[in-house]
Amino acid sequence: MGSVQAGEVPHYDRNKELKAFDETKIGVKGIVDMGIEKIPRIFVRTQDEFTEDLAYTDAAKDQFQTPVIDLQGIDHRRNEIIHEIRRASMTWGFFQLVNHEIPMSVTNEMIEGIRRFHEGNVEVKEKLYVKDLSQKVQYDSNYDLYKSRSANWRDTFRRRLLNPDPIDPQLLPDTCRDIVVEYWKHIMSLGETLAELLSEALGLHKDQLKGMDCTQYLIFLMTTAR
Question: Which of 16, 174, 214, 217 places its Cα 20 to 30 Å from the Cα of 85?
């Protein structure tokens, strides 16, 4: 092996470091638990990236505000809500829903369940660590690891859902199995309501989009950042 002289910059093989990180199959949480004292270079963003992001943020911060759709009192405010959804869809193409009746207790337990998974058994995560996005249950760190300019300091547990034929709950880690199934039921109910509202916003019968299976495919992305 060659030595590095004083003042020289050590050779940096980015692909080698990416591959080494990927092959651990333990993600960011895993390497933190191993006791690293310095953030690996693959996660360090360049000044150019920061400059680009700051320029975009400064240009957009005074212009952008996510449309918020309040579903409270939907039985009495349906036409008003439909109008708000139509306007948000036409201007921004997305919106945030509030007062959607998913119980806070369910949401909180969902957060705790995902935390238990990310803090849990390494062997469980290793078995789920795959890059194939078609897998029904998947754990990874940076799906675009080999394409992005810098890696994100985060891990993701992904579940692909099909309704009315969901995956076998036994494929889910036991640390979050029950709450993910419960949360999925609430999400599908909300999805059907939203499909009705979008149909009416388009001037269609309220069951039009539901009949086209627009609520049959969902992906849960359950991410933790260190």
Answer: 217
Evaluate if residue 81 carries a pLDDT over 90: yes
Structure-token match 């320029």, residue found: 55
Residue 30: which pLDDT band, with cuts at 50, 70 and 90?
A: very high
pTM value surpassing 0.70: yes
Give the span between the Cα atoms of 182 and 110, in whole angstroms. 9
Secondary structure (H, E, C), the chain: CCCCCCCCCCCCCHHHHHHHHHHHCCHHHHHHHCCCCCCCHHHCCCHHHHHHHHHHHHHHCCCCCCCEEECCCHHHHHHHHHHHHHHHHHHCCCCEEECCCCCHHHHHHHHHHHHHHHHCCHHHHHHHECCCCCCCEEEECCCCCCCCCCCCCEEEEEEEEECCCCCCHHHCCCCCHHHHHHHHHHHHHHHHHHHHHHHHHCCCCCCHHHHCCCCCEEEEEEEEEC
Are 113 and 175 within 8 A, CB to CB? yes
pLDDT for 74: 96
